[in-house]
């Protein structure tokens, strides 16, 4: 059921949301919604490099760029080394994240709510 949101063309602008995503597929779905709504349906997958069909925390770590200044939409990757263990998205309040997948979530939490923050990455 991972990547069902993209596979089924669910759009948050239409009030449609996936229900079976894990953390990395949920982050990817959010970015797909944002990027393809601005850049068109054929916007390249700059998040995982898998044509919006696959990915995990390791492919998220392999794309984009590491940044120090958090901005809304950035990915916070957690874990103790490659390939990472969890990802959450920086919220409008850059001290907060939306976290979904490895918890019952989604949750709105402090960006460093876990002690194993690896890095913050930006894809645009």
Summarize the biggest pleated sheet. Answer: 6 strands, antiparallel
Q: What class, by secondary structure content? A: alpha+beta
| Largest sheet, spatial ordering of strands | 1-6-2-3-4-5
Distance between the termini: 27 Å
Number of strands: 6
- What's the average pLDDT? 94
The CATH superfamily turns out to be endopeptidase domain like (from Nostoc punctiforme)
Low-confidence stretches: none
Question: What is this structure, in a nutshell?
Answer:
The chain is 21% helix and 21% strand. A hairpin with a 7-residue loop joins strand 4 (96-99) and strand 5. It is α+β, with helices and mostly antiparallel strands and 124 residues long.
How would you characterize the overall build of this protein?
- The structure is a single chain.
- The protein is an alpha+beta fold.
- It has one domain: endopeptidase domain like (from Nostoc punctiforme) (endopeptidase fold (from Nostoc punctiforme), Alpha-Beta Complex).
- 21% of the residues lie in helices and 21% in strands.
- The chain has three helices and six strands; from the N terminus they run αααββββββ.
- The protein has helices at residues 4-7, 23-39, 57-61; strands spanning 65-67, 75-78, 86-90, 96-99, 107-110, 117-122.
- The protein has a six-stranded antiparallel beta sheet with strand order 1-6-2-3-4-5.
- A hairpin with a 7-residue loop joins β2 (75-78) and β3.
- The radius of gyration is 13 Å and the shape is globular.
- The model has no long low-confidence stretch (mean pLDDT 94).
């Amino acid at each position: 059921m991972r990547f069902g949101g993209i596979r089924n063309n669910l759009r948050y602008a239409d009030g449609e949301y996936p229900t079976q995503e894990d953390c990395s597929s949920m982050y990817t779905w959010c970015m797909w919604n944002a990027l393809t709504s601005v850049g068109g349906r054929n916007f390249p997958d700059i998040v995982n490099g898998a044509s919006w069909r696959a990915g995990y925390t390791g492919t998220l770590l392999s794309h984009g760029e590491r940044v120090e200044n958090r901005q809304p939409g950035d990915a916070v990757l957690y874990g103790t080394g490659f390939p990472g263990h969890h990802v959450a998205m920086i919220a409008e309040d850059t001290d907060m994240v939306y976290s979904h997948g490895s918890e019952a979530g989604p949750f709105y939490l402090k960006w460093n709510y876990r002690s194993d923050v690896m890095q913050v990455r930006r894809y645009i």
